[in-house]
From TrEMBL:
It holds the Pfam family Lectin_C. Residues 117-229 form the C-type lectin domain. CDD domains: CLECT. Residues 1-20 form the signal peptide. Keywords: Disulfide bond, Glycoprotein, Lectin, Signal. This is C-type lectin domain-containing protein. GO terms for molecular function: carbohydrate binding. PANTHER family: ASIALOGLYCOPROTEIN RECEPTOR 1-LIKE-RELATED, C-TYPE LECTIN DOMAIN FAMILY 12 MEMBER A-RELATED.
Amino acid sequence: MFRYYFSYAILVWTFWEVLANKTNTPQSRTVSTNPLLIDQVALYQQQWFAYNAVKENEIQEKMAGIERAIEGRLMVLQQKMRLELQELQTTVANQSEETLEKLRTSLRIIPQNFQKIGKRYFYFENVDTQNWFSAFNTCRRKGGHLATIYDGKELKEVFRRSPPGAYWIDISNAFKKGRYTSTLTGKDPPFFDWNDEKTEKIGNDECVTVYNYKMHTPDCFRKFSFICQAEQWV
């Protein structure tokens, strides 16, 4: 392209000299401009403008390609950082829960005669049978609470270790008529597993026992064995 620049400069200079001579020549003398020279200058101008346009398009395309590459890398980096942040949050949450459970265990004073079943501690009273209200108070005096059973697996684990018989647990409708609640939370119990004879009708002052791994609803003032848990909180 250098030869184009050089030729273009020579032609422009020559054209300028011709115009200058024409200006300095008396009007009686007529100097004609060479049409071929003007056409050549115009041709080089067109080539120069075309070259500039091509180069400008090439630069713009390269810049656009660089921008797309940067955007793609940023998206990949953002996705990677998002995944790493989620993993970190999960790890922190798990560690916090483990730490909290260890703290609870270290601060927990296990009442006497309570035995560990699974991750919790329970006490079975099968000698001194009591009604549901007396059993509730007895568990509190022992430093615990009438037991809440959280799922079927725990029910089987706990009552597999219990002496034979029916046991009061922490479910009753004595405080909210027509609705079974847990006195530990004041809300619906986390788990039910009724016996086959249980009907949808709810009587007055019905409390819940567990017998043969099923839940029954005798009158709260009948006397049965009972099971306490060590926790006095949810």
